[in-house]
Amino acid sequence: MSKSTAELTLRELIEQNRLETEIRPDSNGVLETAVFNPLTRRTFLAGLSAGSLLLMCRVGRGDTAEVADASKVNADAFAPDLWVSIAPDGTVTVLAHRSEMGTGIRTGLPRVLADELEADWSRVVIRQAQGDKRLGDQNTDGSNSIRFFFDTMRTAGAIARTMLERAAAQQWKVDPKECYAELHQVKHRGTGKTLGFGELVEIARKLDIPDKKSLKFKPRDKWRYIGKDAPITDLTQIVTGRAIYGIDARLPNQVFAVAARPPVVGGKVKSLDDSAAKAVAGVVAVIKLPGFKGAPTFQPLGGVAVCATSTWAAIQGREALKIEWDHGANASYDTAQFAKSLKESVNRPGSALRSAGDAAKTIAGAKKVVKADYSVPHLAHASMEPTCAVADVHTDAHGKVTKCYLRAATQNPQAVQQSVGPAMGIPNDRVEVDVTLLGSGFGRKSKPDYCVEAAMLSRELKRPVHMTWTREDDVQHDYYHAISAIHCEAAVGDDGRPVAWLQRVAYPSIGSTFSKAADRPAGFEAEMGHTDLPYDVPNLRLEVCRAKAHTRIGWLRSVCHIQQNFAVASFVDELAHAAGRDPFEYLLDALGDDRMIDLKAAKLSNRGATAKEYPYDIARLKNVVRRVAKNADWARHKTLPKGRGLGIACCRSFLGYTGHVVEVTISRDGKLSIDRIWCSIDSGTIVSPDRVLAQVEGAAVMACSHAVFGELTFKQGRTVQTNFDSFHVAKMSEAPKEIVVDIVPSEAAPAGVGETGVPSTAPALCNAIFAATGKRIRDLPIKNHSLSWS
Amino acid sequence: MTNATVTKINVNGTDHELKDVPGETPLLWVLRDHLGLTGTKYGCGISECGACTVHLDGAAVQSCVTSVGDVGNSKVVTIEGLSQHGEHPVQQAWMQHNVPQCGYCQAGQMMMAASLLRKNHDPSDQEIEAEMWNICRCGTYPRIRAAIKAAGKELRK
Prior knowledge:
Largest sheet of chain A: 7 strands, mixed
Shape of chain A: globular
Number of helices of chain A: 20
Order of helices and strands of chain B: EEHEEEHHHHH
Number of strands of chain A: 26
CATH architecture of the largest domain in chain B: Roll
CATH architecture of the largest domain in chain A: 2-Layer Sandwich
Distance between the termini of chain B: 56 Å
Strand content of chain B: 5-15%
CATH topology of the largest domain in chain B: Ubiquitin-like (UB roll)
Structural class of chain A: alpha+beta
Oligomer: heterodimer
CATH superfamily of the largest domain in chain A: Aldehyde oxidase/xanthine dehydrogenase, molybdopterin binding domain
């Protein structure tokens, strides 16, 4: 039962289009995480006798940040599963298996476990896991970490706590029901006797692992850490400059590499003169990198690498290379032309992914039809830390690769294993990946092409090689957010409400990075802001149209919501104004009655989540709209003078709900000031409230930066922008002055946060600009338009 | 190869002798690759983002465009030397406001803020915006602003 590319989820797409199959796949495939398939007692003890946690799970060598004293994770520890171990001195070590790139996840998930364990947070040490498929999904993207692992962490904590309670009962010869854990101790209800966690290790490690069904979980009102704030675990390291990122990773005897990559994707080296480069002081070697075969996937782009004793010497060596390129098939890619073709594409019928009633017929017979075309350019991730990794490839006496060790700023250490393994001709489990802190990622660092480069160079040089992408490399060779066009068309009734809605989108698909055949938006992309249209309209037709890729397309924080919700939430504002109605009231009206969207009928995958756990609940969407309007004192929008305006927008994304109001002031000569942004977010149960605030604040800044300045253009197949001087990112003076975030209290299942704050920001901003000036921005970025008024 | 040259610089109060490091090498890479002081970050190499900001005799400079040969007798201070254990008022305020997200740009932000506050203990919003042109891609600007004001308040005590 193979699905077509268009039907796959992003994860399936990556999985199915991996370049290779593993050289020696484990016979059983992926093991469930230990919690759901607890290690047997036999393997548990075997693990302990040979070093416990370290053997049972790959734990980082520990230069990420503060780590456990290795002596504390020793053979005497109590380690009931992969996630947690308790040493005889009481130190609790919790494994963090998702990558820390600024969301606070290295703190958040361990706190969920510590809460259920009743551990004293001050005695908890966090260790970063290596890439290890036994841990389950480690691809830190899609705003999935808490959603995927909240229950896993609680279960792991409950298992350990239950065993400690049983150990105490055994010691005191009482019924375990009379024993309960509280803040690093187990207490006896009758006598008030207590034993510390550390004192119970010796007995606990000999007990059977309790059946999952026998576990009792703490009630919500007893939660100690979930929903309460704590400083992120790396805070001190960061503010004192001691935190280690991928660019800071060092291995003995390493050399530093930079590379000249083909300016056009798919290009190749035609001729190379490296004599001047080799003469640069400090340059150790110049090595050609192979380009990718088939679709780009996570293979290197090819080109020429320069390895040297310092990054600067490598950069100087690269400057001195004389390379003639064969630019290949994408050499004529021109985004100005391509944007026109996308607009033409969405003004012709495409293929419908969701429909109801008869939109075409209703529109054809309607008295009043409103139409608008929107577009968003390519965007770059531009993480402050460019992609970096150090690799150390080991070979045997015959020069055959035996293993590879990497330290990498990666969002997905398992993807590093799956990419480096085949490239080196070794099984994936011979690729050992330590994860450093990430100087943000936004999706770029889920794609480990740079790790493969480092490994290839290390294999050649037989010593560790640290690959650094310069900012120029980062901007010119990204997996870009897709350039797009969106056509919206609605027939409106006498009351101004839409009675038919036709919408078409065209943009090169992320699928094109994995399959040459992909030539239109896939279902998982359309579902992010297009086919998940929340409005209550009887006649619907939501289509995708053709668009070929001419560069590498990737996922960037909030992905296709960037362009699709920009269009959808701008267009509803346009309809409100066309009807002469208040945009806030109109929005609520368009959202319709409180109801659950029928996921099956709308053909929505709902990010793989069930309708029971994560319903598409219009009442929750309307709730955030009402709350944000109240917080922003929406009613005053009517009294604001020209040049000032409020805009409103909403979105359901990554299973969470947001409403945004943006307030702007625009001078007569068109200078834009984003005075204030309000956001109400409902992402269900919240683990770390302050980090949710931080994520939503940051999302607002990033979304405004993209909306106002974000533009990556191509001429003759290569990017026009090369660095922050040309790919402009908002600075403090250009960012929103104040961001007010309201977290909706909720006991619903935890939804996404990191990306959820992005989608409704840009349309609220553009709706505010319209309110202030009467100028409707349909083609981003805003900087390309004059906002002056008189 | 030319004859061995020696460049002397003082970083965080310690004298260093660098052998065979060309004078035009940016201070950034000397700090990071030769001296192992990786707290100072690379972000752009063209003085656009401020991630590499250090102090030269107390003034904020971008180490990516400062040649090591031009440092001379000036004293270089990096994030590792801003205080012994993070007790500088700027670092304290950064922690109190939980400013960092990914944290990568924050060394540069704090070095810039410390330099600003040295000159002016009570900067206005406009003054903060004018001086703090560092890029933060995570978007921590509102908290940076708040932390600078808090640190200024501490310094005025």
